[in-house]
Amino acid sequence: MGRPAAGAIALLCYLGLSAAIQWLGLAGSGVAWNESQHCRLLVPEQLQLCRRHLEVMPSIVRAARRTQQLCQQSFADMRWNCSSIQRAPSFGPDLLTGTREAAFVHALAAAAVAQGIARSCASGELPRCSCGPGPAEPPAPGSRWGGCGDNLSHGLQLGAAFTDGSARAGTGGTPGLRAVNRHNGAVGRAVLSDSLDTRCKCHGVSGSCSVKTCWKGLPDLGEIASDLKSRYLAALKVTHRLMGPRKQLITKEGDARPVTEMDLVYLISSPDYCTPNPQLGSLGTQDRPCNRSSVGSDSCDLLCCGRGYNTYTEEVQERCHCRYRWCCSVVCRRCRRSLERHVCK
Ligand SMILES: *[C@@H]1O[C@H](CO)[C@@H](O)[C@H](O)[C@H]1NC(C)=O
Ligand SMILES: *[C@@H]1O[C@H](CO)[C@@H](O)[C@H](O)[C@H]1NC(C)=O
Ligand SMILES: *[C@@H]1O[C@H](CO)[C@@H](O)[C@H](O)[C@H]1NC(C)=O
Ligand SMILES: *[C@@H]1O[C@H](CO)[C@@H](O)[C@H](O)[C@H]1NC(C)=O
Predict the structure, then answer these.
(1) What CATH topology corresponds to 285-345?
(2) Which of 60, 135, 167, 332 could pair covalently with 322 via S-S, beta carbons 3.0-4.6 A apart?
(3) Which region is the signal sequence (predicted)?
């Protein structure tokens, strides 16, 4: 592998990079990939991959967008609502340090890239990979392997090379942070691997399903995001400590559970995200809409951190008393309805 160009290094220093997920900034670029314009947004290790595999970059741009979208959807009802992910590639402390929130984003981003590449293989978008032959196991009775499965192994391999690139290049902060980011990326890919499932399509006269064609397919990334959200809630706090010959991620005292390859891990405790604090990457929850009848994280009680809320009445106009008129239209009246909205103090 050659040395990265000096220009690229200068740009990276200028951006002050230390985020392994800096490539999420690609979300803003067009899918039409332009090497001279876009590859240099990446850290040196990724730069090589970008130049050698230009054809996968559109999948990676889409993965970056999907990660941003899904993170914000998954956290819409939480104090930390993932809006800071839109600052990519220049993140704040909430995503640059080893927080629980950063753990979720690293895992989701890694899964998104692997899934995107696996799908692109199957759709024939990538000349260097294919859907290949069906699995070795025999198909279920009455069915046969066919169609084109998502190429998970290729997605995992190339995806890991890409997302772990910056961690391996040594640009991603302290060794402990790099180990945590690598671990969480691997969790994202493991969750994705576990979700590979057999999907079938029926053939036969008038939908009789006398012949079934099956292939191995991956679920929508939304399913992976919701799985990772549960793992975020159960994430383990770890330290990077010498155990025998190597440094490893060990759970903090009092947390006897060993770290498994399916646990998200974090190094530092997050703030409560109740009040603005730029040093900690907290935006606070003032002016966030809350739900007075909810008992979950979007309840006015929890979201507003006990500060209380203001209630506004909003008038909305709606179509109402609609009637069908011969022939052929629907006539409605306009009605006003008042709607209460609650917003955190
Ligand atoms: C890529 O972007 C650069 C800078 O904007 C531009 O000069 C160049 O023509 C573009 N190349 C292609 C192939 O679009
Ligand atoms: C995935 O793509 C690689 C590279 O083209 C190919 O060798 C392999 O057979 C494919 N595997 C599956 C399971 O589709
Ligand atoms: C997320 O929270 C921030 C800070 O409170 C707020 O400014 C932003 O509008 C919120 N985003 C969404 C989509 O609710
Ligand atoms: C508020 O929470 C309740 C209970 O969880 C739910 O049924 C309702 O749809 C929520 N309202 C809004 C506006 O989200």
Answers:
(1) Endo-n-acetylneuraminidase fold (3.30.2460)
(2) 332
(3) 1-20
